[in-house]
Write a structure and sequence with these properties.
Elements: H1 2-82
């Protein structure tokens, strides 16, 4: 179940990043260099957006792991101190 969730998050982050990057860079390039600049800006923005989306996903997943790490460490330490054995 978790694997499907990860795949969906990767796809959504990549698509959203590509769209936002393409839109921003394409619009900027259109004002600077016209139609040809807009085409180049769209392609470059889509590529940059995909990589940025994947980077954000990695950061969010890393934060999720380390947030849970504190909870797991506290539970383990509490069990050890109180004498509970699992």
């Amino acid at each position: 179940m978790r694997h499907k969730n990860i795949v969906v998050r990767v796809v959504v982050n990549s698509v959203v990043g590509a769209l936002v990057g393409a839109l921003l860079l394409g619009l900027f390039a259109f004002f600077v260099a016209g139609r040809e600049g807009a085409i180049n800006g769209l392609v470059l923005g889509a590529l940059a957006g995909i990589f940025a989306g994947l980077g954000v996903l990695g950061t969010v997943d890393g934060l999720g792991f380390w947030t849970g790490f504190t909870k797991r460490y506290g539970e383990e330490h509490y069990k050890r101190e109180s004498g509970e054995n699992k």
